[in-house]
Amino acid sequence: MEALYHQYKRRVYALVYRIVGAGDAEEVAQDVFVRVFRGLGAFRGESQLGTWIYRLSVNAALSYVAKRGRRAEIPDGAEVLDALPAPPVAMSDPKLAAKVEAAMAALPAGYRAILVLHDIEGLSHEECAAILDCRVGTSKSQLHKARAKMRELLGPALAGERERS
Amino acid sequence: MSACEHVRAELTAYLDGELDETSASSLRGHLRLCAECRAIADEHARIVDVLAALPPPEPPPSMWDGVKARLGAAEIEDARRSRLGLWWQRVRPHLVPAMGLAAAAAVAAVWIAHRRASGDEPAHEVAIGHHEVTPPVPPSPPVAPSAADQIDVRDALASDDDHADAAYRAAAEELIAMAADAKGDWTPSQQKAFDARVAALRTAAEHAASGEPRERAWQALIDYVQRAVVGVRVAEAL
């Protein structure tokens, strides 16, 4: 049980963290692992174990956000950045990561989920669709809308970044 | 759809390498000619790069302890639920027939009273009074006694009330005994309030008029202890 936890703790925590915010991530991630361990007996292997755990994570995070219901409780980018280690890739605007986190926090939770799964975790649309229980086409269109919304929110910051690079 | 709109709709697929070579080449050609679409494409690409470069958050070391604590709490809750479930399965067969017998006896009493009032059946007390002031009437032809006449309804009612009362009392006392386990997690003031409320409800049940008022009083006590011990969720589950 503990081995399974250590195998998936970073992926579960990172996924939940991006959807619910830093303040509530630990609580929701713990809830995910409780569901995983209590549901392992019923897991029938119809999907990959990782996909199943991702699905539990996304569902728990989205349910939590829906119950919380108040966007104001989602931390802004600066708070998120404080809790993160230094970016491995240098950005010409050191505040860009915080701005990106802030923009993500302003997105609808569903858009955050697809951005995290596809653009941050690097999953394919087939995997995203299996996790989000939707069609591949829906996954693609949701990602397109999420990126467009990010661009809308980040517009000036991205323009400055482009000029510096 | 204009060429620009078409290109912007395809940007995500293009950046993710999902366009075939002909479509991708056409899109690149448009970007060479259209500065506005090129700027948008650059921003999309930058968003993808930045998201991929975001540092992964490190789970706090305390998280595993929290998982273990939650698992333990969930298993304790399971034990309480299953114990209550077993209790309810054992008690329900006794409570439901007792309530049913009491209800059936009450219906029989109403039916007999109605027959007496409408003159279908001789009412002994009334008939005795009539014999004293009216001339004797010819005897009625003998009729087979009805099932209802073969029992003393008041005795039956009292007997069924006793059964229901005993079943409710036993159920309530058993549940109160189970509450002793849960009380260990409560504050002293919560325990005191619980004990006081249970005592008041028990007194009310024991002094309530027999029959339906007493059943309601026992049910109030059982409902209270259920809610206090296992919460509304389990009470609903039962």
**Structural class by sheet pairing and helices of chain A:** mainly alpha
Note the total helix count of chain A: 8
CATH topology grouping of chain A:
Rna Polymerase Sigma Factor, Chain: A
Identify the CATH class of chain A. Mainly Alpha
Described by the principal axes of the CA atoms, the overall outline of chain B is elongated
Low-confidence stretches of chain A: 71-90
Gyration radius from CA atoms of chain B, angstroms: 39 Å
**Rounded radius of gyration of chain A (Å):** 16 Å
Average pLDDT score of chain A: 82
Largest sheet of chain B: none
Show the largest interface.
Answer: A-B, 47 and 33 residues
Number of domains of chain B: 2
**SS-derived structural category of chain B:** mainly alpha
Q: What is the secondary structure topology, with strand pairs?
A:
The complex is a heterodimer of chains A (about 160) and B (about 240).
Chain A: H1 2-20, H2 22-39, H3 49-68, H4 77-82, H5 96-106, H6 109-120, H7 125-132, H8 136-164
Helix pairs in contact in A: 1-2, 1-3, 1-6, 2-3, 3-7, 5-8, 6-8, 7-8
Chain B: H1 3-15, H2 21-33, H3 35-53, H4 63-117, H5 124-133, H6 153-183, H7 188-207, H8 212-237
Helix pairs in contact in B: 1-2, 1-3, 2-3, 4-6, 6-8, 7-8
What attributes does this structure have?
heterodimer; A: 165 residues; mainly alpha; Rna Polymerase Sigma Factor, Chain: A; 75% helix; globular; B: 238 residues; 2 domains; 79% helix; 0% strand
